[in-house]
Amino acid sequence: MRVDRIHHVAVIASDYHRSRRFYEEVLGARLLAEHYREERRSWKGDLALGDACVLELFSFPDAPPRPSYPEAQGLRHLAFAVPDVAAAVTELAALGVACEDARTDPYTGRAMTFFQDPDGLPLELYQA
Predict the structure, then answer these.
(1) What is the pLDDT of residues 97-113, one digit of tens each?
(2) Which NCBIfam families does this entry report, sorted A to Z (predicted)?
């Protein structure tokens, strides 16, 4: 088997429309397709993250919250490559999104910071 790249990442939101606005308006994702699945009472949106990855955004009624802090097992965070972490932090702050203090990855020497989506999902900006 050969795996070439990550095709998509799936996120279940507590409020689909709020999260869709966040990923589109704050992170610049582009809506590719959107469907309401009546039988599941569930939205599914496909959002392009640049040219290489898709974020599948779902809603499900009564989905339980997933713990992320303290460091829970499972997916730790989603990381987004940006050309300039400091500039991205400034843009996020202007939109009311708080970020941790930027720091340097001790192994790569690249700038990075963390912030959260509307449901508290940990997200990272990583200087590409």
Answers:
(1) 999 999 999 999 999 99
(2) PRK11478.1
Instruction: Using the structure block, give the residue that is written with the tokens 């970020």.
Output: 99
User: Do 1-62 and 75-128 agree at the fold level?
Assistant: yes
- Hey, is 127 helix, strand or coil? strand
The CATH number given to 75-128 is 3.10.180.10
The whole-model pTM stands at 0.88
Is the model more confident about 122 or about 5?
A: 122
Alpha-carbon distance of 59 to 37, in angstroms, equals: 10
Residue type, 107: Y
CATH superfamily of 1-62: 2,3-Dihydroxybiphenyl 1,2-Dioxygenase, domain 1 (3.10.180.10)
Residue 29 backbone phi and psi in degrees, to 5: -65, 155
Q: Which one, of 75, 125, 76, lies nearest residue 104 by Cα?
A: 125
